[in-house]
Amino acid sequence: MRTPADGRNGTFLGLTFCFTGLCLPTLGISLLVPQPIINATAAENILLPVEHSCTGIPAIKWEYMSNWGWGLQNIISWKAGIYVNVSESYDTRVHRYENGSIQLLNVGMKDAGYYVVTVVEELGAPKRGIIILNVYEVLYEDLHFVVVFIAFLAATAAILICFIWVCDKFVHIFWKKLRWLKEQATEDIQLQTIEGESMEEGC
């Protein structure tokens, strides 16, 4: 036979389990990676964006793995208001944000690879996300060659235009001179004809 105390204890335990059942789903961590693939150029500052939500204060850790798969390298890990650990190689190159995102400064070809973010909360299972970063090198030598080649073409075009203009003037003067010579020859022939006719009349 159950006593009133046992009933109260049973009711309390029942309410506790109900409360726990209602609350446990809200204790889980949600992690969103809005941009799983990022393309960047060398020397650019890039943002690795994530968004997370949880009820407590999570611990966040970012790690890097090269395209060759040489293991995970720690970048930065922190728990808001408690600790921040930054890898020495990233000490001056990484900025962190409250939503879990990080920014890498002056990326190079060596930064291309996989970035793994882990969000851990005491009362929830850890969540992980991956961002693939592709870094492309700006070929300044090729750009320099293109600029020089375009400048050379422009200079050549200017010289050709000047040459054509000079040739056109020369041809114009030549034809003008030739026409004048023809006119002079025609006048000479006419004068000779007139003089010949005059001499015949005089005879």
Automatic annotation (TrEMBL):
Look up the record and report any one GO term of the cellular component aspect.
plasma membrane
Matches recorded under Gene3D superfamilies: Immunoglobulins
Which keywords describe this protein according to UniProt? Glycoprotein, Membrane, Signal, Transmembrane, Transmembrane helix
Q: For this UniProt entry, which residues form the secretion signal?
A: none
Q: Does the keyword Iron-sulfur apply?
A: no
Q: Which GO terms describe its biological process?
A: filopodium assembly; positive regulation of excitatory synapse assembly
- List the transmembrane segments: 12-33, 143-167
Predominant location category: membrane
SUPFAM superfamilies (UniProt xref): Immunoglobulin
Q: Please tell me whether the keyword Cytoplasm is annotated for this protein.
A: no
| Protein location | Membrane
Its name, as the record gives it, is: V-set and transmembrane domain-containing protein 5 isoform X1
